[in-house]
Amino acid sequence: AVNGFFVTKANMPAFIVTLGTMQIFRSIAYQISNGKSISVFPDSAVQSWVFKMGGSIGVIPIQVIIMLALFVIAHFAMKKTTFGYEIYATGGNRRAADLAGINTSRVKMTGFMLTGALCALAGLISIAYLQSVPTTAGSGREMDVIAAVILGGASLSGGRGTILGTFLGAMIMSIIKNGMVLLKVPVFWQTGFIGVI
């Protein structure tokens, strides 16, 4: 909501706002944790529904089930709902969308708020899976996300892209990263290779 406010009301560039708030909240996280990883949780927390997301149903991890469910919901929302069309219209040509009667500020604000909620869910899933919170959690992932979305066919200028394409882009990135680990490519070369992609 904070990012959405600065982008829609203060007309600041979305990319700059999100990078800036990422750094601000990352520094707050360092301050809260005193720069140390957190790996000891109260029993009440470990028994909660959050930590159950780190488990599995049979051989299928719950994280995979959540991911697939979210992809199906997002695909349906983008292809079959008015809001999905409004997102594409706002991203493709905001002025034309405004003239067509779409409240583009509301669409952008809703998009930022949905993104924030999904990032929070991703953080909870990470805590449940790793059973710890490293101080560097998520650091460097922004480049992976950008690369995956672009590989999936999305346009950085907006208005183009699909959920299926994003899914395939993320799969390609995962396969590439896993392949580099299996080939024993040094870590510092791995990040450089992602930059090349």
What would your notes on this structure say?
The structure is a single chain. This protein has a two-stranded antiparallel ribbon. The longest helix is centred in the middle third of the chain and has 27 residues, at 104-130. Helix 1 packs antiparallel against helix 8 (104-130). It has 197 residues and is mainly α. Strand 1 and strand 2 form a beta hairpin. It has helices at 2-8, 14-33, 43-46, 49-52, 62-80, 82-92, 94-99, 104-130, 141-151, 163-182, 187-196, and strands at 56-57, 60-61. The protein contains 11 helices and 2 strands.
How do you describe this structure in short?
Helix content is about 70%, strand content about 0%.
Question: Please, how many helices?
Answer: 11
**Main sheet?**
2 strands, antiparallel
Spatial strand order of the main sheet = 1-2
> How many angstroms does the end-to-end distance come to?
31 Å
* Structural class designation: mainly alpha
User: How big a fraction of the residues is strand?
Assistant: under 5%
| Rg estimate, integer Å | 19 Å
Amount of helix: over 70%
The strand count comes to 2
On the 0 to 100 scale, the average pLDDT is 88
H and E order: HHHHEEHHHHHHH
